[in-house]
Write a structure and sequence with these properties.
Two copies of one chain form a homodimer. By secondary structure, chain A is an alpha/beta fold. Chain A has helices at about 1-25, 40-50, 65-75, 90-100, 140-145, 145-150, 170-180, 200-214, and strands at about 30-35, 55-60, 75-80, 110, 130-135, 155-160, 185-190.
Amino acid sequence: MALEVDLLAKNDELAAANRRWLAERGIVALNLMSSPGSGKTTLLERTVRELGLPCAVLEGDQETVVDAERIRAAGARAVQINTGAGCHLDADMVARGVATLAPEPGSLLFVENVGNLVCPALFDLGEAARVVIMSVTEGADKPLKYPHMFRTADLVLLSKVDLLPYVDFDVAAWVDGARRARPGVEVLEVCATRGDGMADWYAWLRARAEAKAV
Amino acid sequence: MALEVDLLAKNDELAAANRRWLAERGIVALNLMSSPGSGKTTLLERTVRELGLPCAVLEGDQETVVDAERIRAAGARAVQINTGAGCHLDADMVARGVATLAPEPGSLLFVENVGNLVCPALFDLGEAARVVIMSVTEGADKPLKYPHMFRTADLVLLSKVDLLPYVDFDVAAWVDGARRARPGVEVLEVCATRGDGMADWYAWLRARAEAKAV
């Protein structure tokens, strides 16, 4: 347990260094966390195409570079970080990834974490805000069962709302669960393929980008 | 890294002890692993009702006891293990859970691991077989991106096939990915709410239960 505390303390130091480096360049970093298959990459593809602000993306996965290729095809810089057996990104991986990615000053930096609703919650990457994404197919009870991920969220996105007619998912119960873990947290319902809620998501991103400039 | 190896070696010892304890009682333990929300608990509820063999369930989640309550309502013994911030079950948790659960000799013991497609793969629990579950909403690329989980699977279930008409999911590409990680692995397509493929799943379970008796 002492070892785990040391590991996290070391990570927090590196995260603080990332945060300073990013702030000096006016780069707003967002840590996107979810289970595999919640639709993070599809959300980012559309965001990169439509947002109208400079974006760059760090992609975390155990293996493959397919997500970075998808983001590049959508028109943004992207670097893939493969964690092998690792279950989350850490601040050191992000520091090295950012050095390769070289995001433009003043840009939004999306960090798409490894698909995992558990471990990434513990590791600060130096982000300005945390966005937790969950799809309607995952079940409304998940914020209660996996509260650590929701506890530090600055925004929670409910994705794939186009599938709501076909699944047994109680949106109100889910919102209640998310806000029990994180009182008052902002929640948006989105569908990146059909476009629902994307304007609200872009408004939230623009507000974060402007807040940084103040 | 040496510490991680020690931790896994200690876990493997405890898993071997679990395996002996279970074998002496003719109990066949199955380790069910998936992301949160793939439908493990719904699958088990229906299995408990329909299989016609004695079943018991260990439920792993970070928090709440709702899954154990659901299984008990379906008619089987169940014990909930809460891992707190922990991201997987380990052999020691299973040993303690089994001591409380006291599954009948000759029964099937389902261990529903913490919802996480990454970390549980590393930890042997003393199971007779590993079942990896993935729903059609998670995307056909996931076996390639998260191969560790698929590499030691004895059976892979593709769940929620009732949603196939509403999602962009290439079943053949997904099977190909799963078999790249685990050559020749048996794959079943199921829907626990509508009933698709459940007969095949029960046949697989009966075959495992009979194989134990030989």
